[in-house]
Amino acid sequence: MHVNQYIQRLRWLYYRVTLRRWRHLIANGERREDSLDPASGAQQMPSRRLRSGDGWVPCRPEHRLDGENIVRQLVVSFATGSVIIIERHREALHYARLAESINPYNPALSQAMEKLAEVAATTGQANPQAHAMAIAQIYRLVLHQANFLSILDGFYFLTVVAICGGLIAALQRRIN
């Protein structure tokens, strides 16, 4: 479950319990101004005795904020999708760059392959299997490095966005 969905369900449960409490007070005609927590932002009970025929029921604050909630959800969805697309693109780019250096003419790769094959042979693997395991280890290492570099690029991107946002906020504050 997404965090926003969890928060929305908690809010819905809170307002449902609050609504039941209000209906109980209305049905019993009680005057209880302290029945709701003022720090929660919920509407306060009026300072008059309520009857069941009043028909006054509090509305949830989300009703007036539906447009803002829709815009916020669209922005969050767009931002999440954009970051995922950028990360996948950068991962493919880094994988292509790292894979360029993996060839039989690279002496560093040849030494690493020999060491990995020796380690695999010490575990009791046959020579062809040890060589295949060394290739698989190199492949996994390249994938992990490409993934790490793409995530690092994402953090650089977020840093640039945060700096630009800070500059815009500072300019707006100076203008006001």
Distance from N terminus to C terminus (CA atoms, Å) equals 41 Å
The backbone outline, from C-alpha atoms, is: elongated
Quickly give the structural class.
mainly alpha
Describe the largest sheet.
none
Q: How many structural domains in the coordinates?
A: 2
Number of strands: 0
**Helix-strand pattern:** HHHH
How big is the Rg? 30 Å
Low-confidence segments, given as residue ranges, are 31-35, 44-54
Itemize the secondary structure elements and their pairings.
Blueprint: H1 3-28, H2 66-100, H3 107-122, H4 127-175
Helix pairs in contact: 2-4, 3-4
Explain how this protein is built.
The chain is mainly alpha-helical and 176 residues long. It folds into two domains: 3-59, no CATH class; 82-175. It is 72% helix and 0% strand. It is built from four helices and no strands. Helix 3 crosses helix 4 (127-175). The longest helix is centred in the last third of the chain and has 49 residues, at 127-175. The two termini are 41 Å apart. Mean pLDDT is 77; it is low at 31-35 and 44-54.
Note the main attributes of this structure.
176 residues; mainly alpha; 2 domains; 4 helices; 72% helix; elongated
